[in-house]
Write a structure and sequence with these properties.
This protein is of the alpha+beta class and 187 residues long. It has one domain (10-186): Peptide Deformylase, CATH 3.90.45.10. 20% of the residues lie in helices and 25% in strands. It has three helices and eight strands. The protein has a five-stranded antiparallel sheet. A three-stranded mixed sheet has the order 5-4-8, with helices on one face. The longest helix has 18 residues, at 25-42. The termini are far apart.
Length: 187
């Protein structure tokens, strides 16, 4: 956790720089280390031993690198492992419908609880490159789409709490279809 940049550091508010392809070996190594951190943070023994907070996404600027790349590692709704390393990602399309996590979002760079709804697009289509420099285009929905948008925000110098309504943290945007991600009535 000592390597994670905390809120207040200007690196988190700067827009990251695109990487040259093919990736340099040190950039590939950085992505591999970031992914290993996420895996370790989700391992109960390792996270307890090293006092790691569990994370599902990590952007390069969260480890002090001004580079346009991030990793995500999580289990989908069927328990399958979802593991992606993104280089120079762009959201190329998104749904009109939105979702939010009822318990708000968390962030490895934020050491305090933040309450409020963070509106996100229900689905996104992302274009970028993998570690090998191969172009990748993928669609994500639900929780995975939220993780993608959270990490993309990091790359653009935006913190998740910037998206919470400042006057009323639990007020949702008007004129848009939006629901709690875990609202079973709407599924």
């Amino acid at each position: 956790m000592d390597d994670i940049v905390r809120e207040g550091d200007p690196v988190l508010r700067a827009v990251t720089e695109p990487l040259q392809l093919p990736l340099q070996s040190e950039d590939q190594e950085a992505l591999q280390c970031m992914m290993q951190f996420l895996k370790n943070s989700q391992d109960t023994e390792l996270s307890a031993k090293y006092k790691l907070r569990s994370g599902v996404g990590l952007s390069a600027n969260q480890v002090g690198l001004q580079q346009r790349m991030f990793v995500m590692y999580l289990k989908d709704e069927k328990g399958r492992t979802v593991e992606h390393a993104w280089v120079n990602p762009k959201i190329i399309s998104h749904s009109l419908a939105m979702v939010y996590l009822p318990e708000s979002e968390g962030c490895l760079s934020v050491d305090r609880p933040v309450h409020g709804f963070v509106p996100r697009y229900e689905s996104v289509k992302v274009k970028g490159y993998d570690m090998g420099g191969k172009e990748v285009v993928m669609k994500f929905k639900g929780y995975q789409a939220i993780v993608i948008q959270h990490e993309m925000d990091h790359l653009n110098g935006i913190m998740f709490y910037d998206r919470i309504n400042q006057e009323n943290p639990f007020k949702l945007p008007q004129g848009v279809e939006i629901r709690s991600l875990y609202d079973k009535q709407n599924e």
